[in-house]
Design a protein that fits this description.
mainly alpha
């Protein structure tokens, strides 16, 4: 149980440190999909 709690805390730390990078990647993916959709019209 202790190992599970430690790994969850580590994962939470990684997510809190990289949240802006994840959001940036999601925004780029959304822009590419929107551009592809508009280009196909």
């Amino acid at each position: 149980m202790h190992t599970l709690q430690e790994s969850y805390r580590g994962l939470s730390l990684i997510m809190s440190l990289n949240w802006d990078r994840l959001l940036f990647l999601v925004a780029i993916a959304a822009a590419l999909m929107t551009g592809a959709f508009l280009g196909s019209l």
